[in-house]
Amino acid sequence: MTRADRLYLFVTIFLAIAAIAGGVMLAVQHSRNQPVEIILAQTEPPQLSGEVYIGGAVANPGIYPLREGDTLQTLLSDAGVEPDADLSHTEIYVPRQGEEQSPQKIDINRAEAWLLEALPAIGEVLAQRIVDYRSEHGPFRTIEDLLKVSGIGQGTFDKIKDYITVSE
Q: Domain of 76?
């Protein structure tokens, strides 16, 4: 075999290997570009029903019923969002089953008389006195300031102190 024949044989083998390698690379590249179908399991959305506590910068903080189809906007509208509310930050907390929840607190600086009547040992007369005191003297700074209201002594205060709060 002459030197030219060996060179011709070498070039032929090299071209055959290059053609095979190129074909394999094209096949791999082609299979990568094929769309992949992803199938998600069909799950039912959670049933939303029960109660929602809404507090903070709302006119009527409290527990509201949650019905199918309710939106956050509907619930906030029911609670009466105040003009200075920061709606860019809203908290939602979902307790686990059996988790103990702290009692709902009533803001004595914002609550109307009818809501204050829900407190233990506070009837219609004392509730109105709280509202009147707040109107005459300004907002309460601490919950202990409630002792300044005529008719509210230490015994009454001890019964309601875990259920009230003051806003700034």
A: 44-97
